[in-house]
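INFO worker-7 received task bundle
INFO bundle size: 2
INFO processing item 0
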Amino acid sequence: MDYQKLLNELLSYTAEHKASDLHLSPGYLPTIRLHGQLTPLNDYKVLDEGTIVGLTEAALGNHKARFLAEKEVDFSYSLGEARFRTNVYITKGLPAATFRFLPSKIPTIEDLNLPPVVKIFSELKQGFVLVVGPNGQGKTTAMASLIDLINHEKARKIVTIEDPIEYLYKPDKSIIDQREVLNDTLSFHKALRSTFRQNVDVILVGEMRDLETMSAAVTAAETGHLVFTSLHTNNAAQTVERIIDSFPADQQPQIRIQLANTLSGIVSRRLIPNLKGEISPAVEVLIANSAIRNLIRENRLNQINLVIETSFDEGMVSFNRSLAELVMKNEISEEQAYFYSLDPNGLKDLLK
C-alpha cells in the first residue's frame, strides 16, 4: 500500500471539509473533528498495525529518529498550501498521530468573531499580551491574527518562537523571522534572551511552558518589547495567578510588580457548540488599566473579575456578557451558556 498517498488523501479530506483535526489511532477508523465533534470516516478501514505504522512513518520523515528516542514528537507537515501541526506518539506500543489543520490564509480578527477592541493590542509599542483558554480553543490562531494585523499595518521587526512553526506569514510591511524550537533554537527561553540583541519590536512566544520562559517573556516586555504569548488557563484572573504562583515564594513579590507594570491585556477564548451544530466563540477581554494594575500589585486577584464586569465602557468584555450576547442572538442555548459559565449566578442576572 502507498501510505504516503493514503496520508495525503486523509489530510486533503480534512482540509477540504475545514475540520480542525485528523486523528489516526490503531484499532479505530480515521476520524476528523468537525465543529468540535469527532466524526469517523466510514469510507475507510479501521487502522490495523501495518497501516498505522505506515501512515505515521510517512508523516514523520526526518523526525523519525527523535520520535524513536523520545516516544513523541511535534512538527509541522505541509501538503501543498495546507499545513498541519502534527503530534506523533505511542499508545499501547503502537504509533498514533493527531494533525491540527492550519489554513494557509491567516484569519482576521473579524473572521474569528473577536471583539474589535482586541485590535488595540496590535497598536502597542510595548507590553505583555496573553491569549488564554483550554486546549483547542484557537489561542494560536488568535495570536497569529494579531501578528498578521501588525504585519499589514506597521513596519516592525517581529520574531516568533514556536514549537513547531504553525502559520506562515507573508511579507508585507514588517520583517518576520520565525524560529522553531530544536530546529532554529534550543529552547523558548534561549530564543527569548537572544531577541534582546536582534533589534526586535514584537515577539511572539508560542507557549510559556516553564519558569525560565515566563521570566524571560516578562523581562522582554519590561525592556521595551511588545510580547504576545499563551497559557492554558480559563480566564484573566486565573492567568495572573498562574504566572505569579509559578515562581518561588521569595520571587513572587518581584514578579507581581513586574507583571503589574508590563501587562497590557488578556484575551480568553472558548468555542461553544451552537444551535446550528457548529461552534461560536465566547471571549473575555481584560485591558490593564490602573485598577487592574493596583489589584495585581496588592495581590487582590479575586477582584479582577469584578473590574472586568464593571469596565464595559473601557472596552473590557466579561465572559458572562459574551455568553449572554450569544444567547440573545439565538446562537447558543441558555443551557450551553450556563454549562460554560464560570459564574452562573452572574450570568442569570444578565439573562433576566
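INFO item 0 finished
INFO processing item 1
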Amino acid sequence: MSLKSKQPLFAAESMSFKSIEINLDDDDDGTAWVQTGATLGELYYKIAKESEIHGFPRGLCPSVGLGGHISGGGFGTLVRKYGLAADQVIDAYLVDVDGKVLDREKMGEDVFWAIRGGGSFGVILAWKIRLVRVPPIVAVFNIQKTLSEGASKLVHKWQYIANKLHEDLFIRVIAENSGTNPIRTVKASFNSLFLGRTQRLIPLMDGAFPELGLQEKDCTEMGWIESVLYFSGYQKGDPLEVLLNRTTIYKSSFKAKSDFVKEPIPEKGLEGEWEKLVEEEEALALLIMDPFGGKMDEISEFEVPFPHRKGNLYNLQYMVKWEENGIEESKRQCEMDENAL
C-alpha cells in the first residue's frame, strides 16, 4: 500500500511469475509468452538456448524484470534496428479491478495500447512478445578518449551523426569523471554494437565518423548472446548461466534521471557538463547517451505511449554512484545530480 498516494493503491509482488515459453514457429520470426516476473536475463538465456539467430530489443541490465521494463517502453542496443521492447508486444494477460483475466481482445485496444509503455492499468500476468532476427556474428568496440585526447569534440560530432547511422550500428557514449586530484578529467567511452562483421563495419565508420579513428584491432566479433553479456558488464568466457542471477553485479548506491535530446548540445554546454562531472570527487558521475533514429524514426509517436520518436536525437541519462551508505551521503549525491541538470 502507498503511504503518499491520495488514492488507495497496492503493489503486487510478481517475481515468482517467471515462466517463459518460446515458439519459433509462431509468426514470421517467432514469439514468446513471458510471465511478468521473469528477468531480461532469463529471457535472453531462454532465447539463446533455442536459437543463435533470434533476439529481443531490451535493456542492458539482465536483473531487470520484464514487466516493469515493458511498462515503461524499454530500449537497449537494438533500439535503432527494431525499436522498443514495448513495440514487440502482441498480446498480454491482465487482471482488471474486478479480478477478471483479460487478453488483448477482451481488454480492448485502448487498454492494450496503454499498458505498452504508459504505466500500470491493471496487474499484468504475462506478455506475448515478437522475437527479432539477429545475425550469428556481431561486432563490438569500446574506444575511450579523455578531454586532452579530444573527447569533447568527438562527443559534439557524435550528436550530429549517431541517429543517422545505418540502423545496424548503435554507438552510445558514456562520459564519466576520471583520475585523482590534482589531475581530474572526463573520459568518454564510445561503446558500440554492430549487427554484422567487422569487414562491413569499418567502411561505415570511415564514411560517417572518421574522427573516431576506428580500426580493425579495436573490434571484437562474437555471437549476439555474447554481446548481451558484454554490455551487461560480464567478462569474456563467463557462462550463459550468469544471466539467471537475479542479483546485480554492481552494488553501489545510485541516482539517475534522463532527458530526451532534440537539439545537439553546443560545445560550451558540454564543457559545462564536464566541469560538473569533475567537481564530484567522492562519487562516480556519468552521462550516458543512447542514440535513437533508425526504426525509432519510422514508428509513430502514437503507436504506444512512448512519444519520444522522430526528432529525438538521443536519450541522455545523468547518474551518480557512490559507495558510502547513509542518509546524509545519499542526500548530498542526489543534490549533485540535480545540479548537473
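INFO item 1 finished
INFO post-check item 1: The two ends are 32 Å apart (CA to CA).
INFO post-check item 1: Residues 327-340 form the longest helix (14 residues).
INFO worker-7 idle
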